[in-house]
Amino acid sequence: MLIDSHCHLDRIDLEPFDGSLDKVMDSARAAGVDHMLCVSISLEEYPTVRGIAERYADVSCSVGVHPGETEGADPTVEDLVSRGRDSLVVAIGETGLDYHYHPEDNEWQRERFRTHIRAAREVGKPLIIHTRDAREDTIRILKEEGADQVRGVMHCFTETWEMAQAALDLGFYISFSGIVTFRNAEELREVARQVPDDRLLVETDSPYLAPVPHRGKGNHPAWVRDVAAKVAEVRGSDLESIAALTTRNYQQLFGAL
Ligand SMILES: [Zn+2]
Ligand SMILES: [Zn+2]
């Protein structure tokens, strides 16, 4: 049993699946993927994300506005809390800081990030954190806002071991995507080797970041298997063990399936 801890099912290119999300789900199930967390990136798209979680028993969802999202509404704590109380919603996010795409003018990102942490604390659900080129501010704001009380996951992790340790110290989990399979990701594989067994997660972040040997194609949850296999190889483990422990970790963080 495998769990894709982070995907965007509403954005998957359905063309190779005869236009049918059912077929995407079937291919995931055939690959041994028994559960998926479909992550929200805007309030405008949230109803679609929630609709997918309502339609499929093996999908949960989150509510949040991505730090790179500049089109839609900026959420208030109340916007997130009212949606976050829903039983289909297992987490708040994705949220965080992305200074790669918005290097200047990022006060609004920090405010939006704080809003998400406050909402997560109010509903008592974990956070899904997206962080890029913003290590110090991410950790500082998590601490200042008491994010250790709800914990969460550093999703699609691409940072240093020091950053991973700081997140682990706050009770956070570390999730690896297809990037861990990329040829030039040697340093990241070293981080994947060191994360403790009880804090490890895997994800596709589909439709983005298809793992080797599918690079360049539209990603989908079945391929979390390739991510887990690489993580297993790096850790000198096997796919079954990694599947079992990442499934257990998912349930520890996001609740029973
Ligand atoms: Zn992200
Ligand atoms: Zn994402």
What structural keywords apply?
globular, 257 residues, eight-stranded parallel beta sheet, binds zinc ion, single chain, alpha/beta
- Spatial separation of the terminal alpha carbons: 12 Å
Rg from alpha-carbon coordinates: 17 Å
Number of strands: 8
Give the SSE order as H and E letters. Answer: EHEHEHEHEHEHEHEHH
Shape call:
globular
How much helix, percentage-wise, in residues? Answer: 25-40%
Helix/strand-derived category reads alpha/beta
Number of helices: 9
The small-molecule ligands in this entry are: zinc ion
The average pLDDT is: 97
Largest sheet: 8 strands, parallel
Major β-sheet strand ordering: 1-2-3-4-5-6-7-8
Strand content: 15-25%
Q: Poorly predicted ranges (pLDDT <50, ≥5 residues)?
A: none
Summarize the structure.
The chain has 257 residues and is of the alpha/beta class. 39% of the residues lie in helices and 17% in strands. Helix 2 links the parallel strand 2 and strand 3.
Care to describe what's here?
The chain is of the alpha/beta class. 39% of the residues lie in helices and 17% in strands. It has an eight-stranded parallel beta sheet with strand order 1-2-3-4-5-6-7-8. Helix 3 (77-84) runs parallel beside helix 4 and helix 8 crosses helix 9 (239-254). It is globular. The structure holds zinc ion (2 copies).
Secondary structure: elements and pairs:
Blueprint: E1 2-7, H1 21-30, E2 33-38, H2 46-55, E3 59-63, H3 77-84, E4 89-98, H4 107-123, E5 127-132, H5 135-144, E6 152-154, H6 161-169, E7 173-176, H7 186-194, E8 200-202, H8 224-234, H9 239-254
Parallel strand pairs: 1-2, 2-3, 3-4, 4-5, 5-6, 6-7, 7-8
The protein binds zinc ion (ZN) (2 copies).
